[in-house]
Structures are given as structure tokens and as C-alpha cells.
Amino acid sequence: MVVFPPPCDPSVLDAYSTVPLVPSVRTSVIHDFNTGSFARFRNPLEVISIHDRPDFHSLSHYDIRQRLDAEDRKDGFILIDEDTANNHAVWWITSMSESNFITENIEPPPITYPEEAYTLWKLHLLTQDLPIQWTNWDVGNTDIVDDIPEAYPYDPHAPQEPPFTLGLNFSNKEDGQGWYYGPDVLAAPGEYEASDDLEPRSNFMPRPDWVLRLTTEAAREAGLLVRWSQWFGARPSEEQDVRIHTEYDWDSPKWAWDGLLRGLNVQTARLMQSGRKLGISCKRLPVVDISPLVDRLPWVRNRPAPAQDDVATS
Question: 61: helix, coil or strand?
Fold first, then answer.
């Protein structure tokens, strides 16, 4: 049986709302976000954590940012508003430090408002686009300024309509398969085949000594495609397990998608993050009990007890 590595350290993005959240809107936001994070493959790019706080209802984006800063929650966050139900879009609100950095380094200067101590930078975008965009911002491929329409001069009170979008539907294979990196899986003898033929090896640079791929049956049962993967050194022995890089088969019933992420919730994702921060590899998390150690982490010490709605699965 082909073995998948455990999910590794998905980032948890907190979401709040300026209006009371009805179940249908909550479910719609989670569905759209999970679609864009490729949660169908059980290893999402990010996980959303929704908090419906009545004290945030009817507040401005700037005021919510100020309140979270006062609670020592200084990271960027997602904001749901009264239009989310209809346009399937949310706001990404940057941290105060990022907003100040952008303001100090952009020309022309943004429009300012006397009642606000600084300019809050934010982007209105389709919910399913947020996971990919946040990943790009996090690794430095793009900047939020690149995605804000008519950002010169930037107006923090502008409605930003229509919302930013990449113009793709990540629930469709044609749009999504080029955006999500395939897995490295562990295959046992009998589940893979090896070749030293020049033609398949020529597709890699540097050229490997061997190429490996799953058998058709093993790939079908695992919901994967048959793709050559490089192997350096001697041919694997007949009793050797091997690591093979391949791609997901979007058409496999194994990845049937209804927009819900089962088996991984916000608390699990935060536990994975805790392990990484404590120097524990995500591949060892299933066999390492880190619960006695997590109190050392700031988000555990300072975070209030999770509300019942602080989940990413429904």
C-alpha cells in the first residue's frame, strides 16, 4: 500500500466578521477557502479559523485591526462582511507593521484620514483565491500592493470592486492542477517499477541514474498518476521501499470533493505548528506527544479558549 507523508504545518489564518454569521455564509466561506487551499488532497496550503465576535460587528476594518493589536494578535487576518454571501469575497487585512512598511516605501503616498493613526493596507479578493495569494505573499513571490486595483494613490476606504481574482476555478482540474505540488510517496516492492532507459531519464536535469514510477494498479488505488521520478545511485533492491514524486489524479474517486476538510481542524493544525516551532519534524508528529511542551508557545499562553465555531471542517 502506497504511504502518504503526514500533512505538514499548514498555516492557520484567522477570520472575523463585521456582521453576524449565519450558518450558510460560514459554510460558503469554508467551502471556498478549502477549495483554494486544495484541501481535497488532505494536505491544505492553509486552514481557516473563523471567529464570530459580536464586539466586531459593525466596526470598521481599522477599528478591528486596532482591537486585535490591543489583544496582542498582530498578524494579518481575514475579514468577512455583509457582501461575502453574494460575491464570495473577503478582505485580507495586513498587520500594522506591514502597513507601515508599505506606506514608507510606496510612491505616491496613500490617501490618509485624520481619525486614523496610520494607513491600513488591505485587499478585497475572492475567498478561493486567498490561499494561493497568501502563499505567494508569504514566500515573497508577490506583494499585496501588486494585487490592489488602482493602488496609486491607495485609498484605504475604497470598496475595491470588483474583488481581485486570478480568474480560475480551483475545483476544476484544468485550472487547479498546475497550482498544487504533487506528493512524495513511499512505495513498497511490487508497487513500483524502475528503468535506466535514456528516454525517460533525459527528462530530468541533472540526468538521474534511474527513474522510478508507481505501477498502474498502485497509482489507481492511491488516487495518483503514473509519473517517472528520479533516482540516483544503484538500482533499488527487490526488497527496498522507495520515495517517488508523483501527481494527484483529480479524477480519482479518492479525492471526491464536497468542500469540507475532514480529519484536520484548526486545533490539529495549530498543534502541528507547535511541533515545528519546538523543532519536531512534521513527519514525526504522529508519534511524538508534544502536549507537555505547547504551553511554551505564545499563541497557547495568550489565546482565549477556542469557541465552538473555531473549526475548519464544517
Answer: helix
